[in-house]
Write a structure and sequence with these properties.
The chain contains 1 helix and 6 strands, in the order E-E-E-H-E-E-E. It is mostly beta strands and about 100 residues long. It has one domain: OB fold (Dihydrolipoamide Acetyltransferase, E2P), CATH 2.40.50.140. A 5-stranded mixed beta barrel has the order 1-2-3-5-4. Strand 5 and strand 6 form a beta hairpin. It is globular. The relative contact order is 0.28. The model has no long low-confidence stretch (mean pLDDT about 90).
Length: about 100
Amino acid sequence: MFDMTKSVRLEGTVKRFEWTNPHSWIFLEVAGPGAAVEQWTIELPAAGLLAREGWNKNYVRMGERVVLHVNPLKDGRKGGNLESFVPPSKGPVDK
């Protein structure tokens, strides 16, 4: 499903964060070509695993600007699997 040989850097605005099982999700708005805005859907580990790494349901907030590194979807759609996350003023966090 994901191309684990590739890594894409995304910088954008969090549209929504879902703290769920079996996977959590970040929905990200990223500047595309011209004035276009691309909607990316990023899959994260389960909420329990994220909690053990210091995350909580308020760790990512709507409207925040963040930097993500993801393994993109193989089919070319705008989505991926989280590799690492750089939230504002929190420093890098590996998944």
